[in-house]
Specification:
This protein is an alpha+beta fold and 487 residues long. It has 2 domains: 1-36 and 46-299, no CATH class; 314-486, endopeptidase fold (from Nostoc punctiforme) (Alpha-Beta Complex), CATH 3.90.1720.10. It is built from 11 helices and 6 strands. A 6-stranded antiparallel β-sheet has the order 1-6-2-3-4-5. Pfam families: CHAP. Residues 360-487 form the Peptidase C51 domain.
C-alpha cells in the first residue's frame, strides 16, 4: 500500500523514536554486562604433573644413589637432598610462583576494569543529574527527538494534525495513545503509530534512567569491592609463594656450601662427577634467579637510546645490548684451524678455578689461559652467550678480550690476543661452537664455559641464551676432538 505524505512522516517519526529507545536500552545493557571474577584451583592436569614430577624425582634419586655407592650415608643424603631441592622442589615452587603471579595480575586487571566502569557510571549519574536540574525528571528524550523530527519535516494541513499530537503530548505514553486513537489518520498511519508504541514503551524519561543508573552503581560497587578483595588476596598469595621460593633458594645455597666443603670425602670418579653435577645445577639455579632479579630491577628503570636485540651468539659494541649483525659478523660454516697459537702448550689439563670445585685433572699447566690484552670490560650484548662467557670467566679469575666477535668466532680471533686455542677441554675454557654445531645458531655460532672435566672423556659446560635471554643452563658433552676451546 502506498503511504501518504503524512504516513511517511509518521513512519519516520516512529523510526526515530525507536532509534532513541534502542540507543538508550543498549547503553543500559552495556552497564549490566559485568565480568565475573574467576576462581583459581588446581586442575586434574596439575595433579598429573605433580605425580609425574614425584615419579621422576624418585627415579632420579635412585640413579644418583647408585653413583654414590660407597659414600657415607650422611654425605650421600646431603647430595641427594640438594639435588632434589634443585631439580624438583625449587622448579615446582617456581611454577607455583608463576601461576600465582599470573592469577594476581588477572585479578588486578578485573578489579581495575570494574573500578573504571564504576567511575564511568558515576560520571553518567553526575551528567544526568545536571540535565535533570535543567529539565526536570519527566523530560523524555525519545519524545523530544520525535517532536523535533516533526518540527523539522512536517508541513501541510494533515501534518498540522500530527504536529499538534506530537508537540501537545507531555509524555511518551500520551503521544502513543493519541497516535493510536485519532480518527483523522489513515490505517497505515495508525499501524505506524502502533509500531512506535512498541518501541517507545521501552524508553525511559530522565528520572527513570537516573534510577536505573543508580541501581547499576550499587551493583558495580559490590562487584568492584569483591574484585578488589580478590586481587588483594591473590597478591598476598603470590607474595607468600615468592617468599617461599626465596627461602628454598637460600636453603640451597647453604646446602651447596656444606657439600662443597665435604667433597674431599668422595673417592670414586663416579661419586665425584655425580656430586659436581649436583653442585653445578644448584649454582646455575642461583645464577638464573640472580639474573632474573637484575632484569626485573632493570625493567623498572628508564632506558636511554634504542635497545637492540640479536640472535644467540651475537655480540654488541656496547654494554647496552645493541648489536650489529651485519655480514661482517658472520662466520664460515666450516671451522678452520687457528692461524697462530701463541698461548703456550696445548695440554688438556685444568687450571685452578676460583670459585669452582670441579673434579678436573690438575696435572697440567694453565699456560695461555686468560689475558688482560684487549680486556676493556664486557662489551658483549646483555643476556647473550658471549656476555655470559665473559662474565663467567671473570668470576673464575680468567681475563677475556672484549671484542672476540660472535660466539662462533672466538676460536678464530682469540689467538691474535695471545690466547691458547686447542681441542682439549679445561675448566674455565670457552667452548666456541661454530655455526650449526650441536644446535648452535646457524649464523653466529655459540660459546659456553667449561665448568668441570671428568676422567671418562666428558665435561660439563654452562651457557646462556639456549633457553632464553639471561637464562643459564648446563649440559654434559663428550670430547672426541671436535670442539675448539679458548683458554
Amino acid at each position: 500500500m502506498k503511504l501518504t505524505r503524512v504516513g511517511r512522516s509518521t513512519a519516520a517519526m516512529a523510526s526515530a523514536a525507536a532509534l532513541c529507545a534502542t540507543m538508550g536500552f543498549a547503553s543500559t545493557a552495556a552497564m549490566v554486562a559485568m565480568p565475573v571474577p574467576q576462581a583459581y584451583a588446581d586442575t586434574y592436569s596439575d595433579l598429573l604433573d605433580a605425580q609425574a614430577r614425584q615419579q621422576s624425582s624418585a627415579a632420579r634419586e635412585q640413579e644418583l644413589r647408585d653413583k654414590l655407592a660407597g659414600v657415607s650415608a650422611d654425605l650421600a643424603d646431603k647430595i641427594v637432598e640438594l639435588d632434589t631441592l634443585t631439580n624438583t622442589t625449587i622448579p615446582a615452587a617456581q611454577k607455583a610462583v608463576t601461576s600465582a603471579n599470573d592469577a594476581a595480575a588477572q585479578a588486578q586487571d578485573e578489579a581495575d576494569a570494574l573500578a573504571a566502569r564504576l567511575a564511568a557510571a558515576q560520571k553518567d549519574k553526575e551528567t544526568l543529574e545536571a540535565e535533570i536540574k535543567k529539565t526536570g525528571k519527566d523530560y523524555d528524550d525519545a519524545h523530544a527527538a520525535v517532536a523535533q523530527m516533526a518540527r523539522d519535516s512536517m508541513h501541510g494541513s494533515n501534518a498540522s494534525d500530527v504536529m499538534s499530537v506530537v508537540t501537545g503530548s507531555t509524555s511518551t505514553k500520551q503521544f502513543v495513545n493519541s497516535m493510536q486513537t485519532r480518527d483523522a489518520l489513515s490505517r497505515t498511519e495508525s499501524n505506524a503509530a502502533s509500531d512506535a508504541a512498541v518501541s517507545l514503551n521501552t524508553s525511559m524519561n530522565r528520572g527513570e534512567r537516573l534510577a536505573a543508573i543508580e541501581e547499576q552503581i550499587t551493583q558495580l560497587k559490590a562487584k568492584a569491592d569483591d574484585a578488589l578483595a580478590a586481587a588483594q588476596d591473590a597478591a598476598a598469595d603470590a607474595k607468600a609463594k615468592r617468599d617461599s621460593l626465596e627461602s628454598l633458594r637460600k636453603e640451597g645455597e647453604s646446602k651447596r656450601a656444606e657439600l662443597e666443603s665435604a667433597q674431599s670425602q668422595l673417592k670414586s670418579d663416579a661419586a665425584k662427577q655425580a656430586a659436581q653435577t649436583v653442585l653445578i645445577a644448584s649454582e646455575v639455579d642461583s645464577l638464573n634467579s640472580q639474573y632474573a632479579a637484575e632484569q626485573a630491577a632493570a625493567a623498572q628503570k628508564p632506558t636511554v637510546g634504542p635497545q637492540g636485540t640479536t640472535d644467540s651468539g651475537s655480540t654488541g659494541g656496547n654494554t647496552g645490548g645493541s648489536t650489529n649483525n651485519n655480514a661482517a659478523n658472520t662466520t664460515p660454516t666450516t671451522p678452520s684451524t687457528p692461524s697462530t697459537n701463541t698461548g703456550g702448550s696445548t695440554n688438556g689439563g685444568s687450571a685452578s678455578n676460583s670459585g669452582n670445585s670441579g673434579s678436573s685433572s690438575s696435572s697440567s699447566s694453565s699456560s695461555g689461559q686468560g689475558t688482560s690484552n684487549g680486556d676493556s670490560g664486557n662489551a658483549y650484548a646483555g643476556g647473550q652467550c658471549t656476555w655470559w662467557a665473559y662474565n663467567r670467566r671473570k668470576q673464575m679469575g680468567i681475563g677475556t678480550p672484549s671484542f672476540l666477535g660472535n660466539g662462533g668466532q672466538w676460536y678464530q680471533t682469540a689467538p691474535s690476543y695471545g690466547l691458547r686455542v686447542d681441542h682439549n677441554p679445561q675448566v674455565g675454557a670457552a667452548l666456541s661452537f661454530y655455526p650449526g654445531q650441536d644446535g648452535a645458531d646457524g649464523t653466529y655460532g655459540h660459546v659456553a664455559v667449561v665448568e668441570a672435566v671428568y676422567s671418562d672423556g666428558t665435561f660439563q659446560i654452562s651457557e646462556m641464551n639456549v633457553q632464553g635471554l639471561y637464562v643459564v643452563s648446563y649440559r654434559t658433552l663428550t670430547n672426541l676432538g671436535q670442539y675448539w676451546f679458548v683458554h
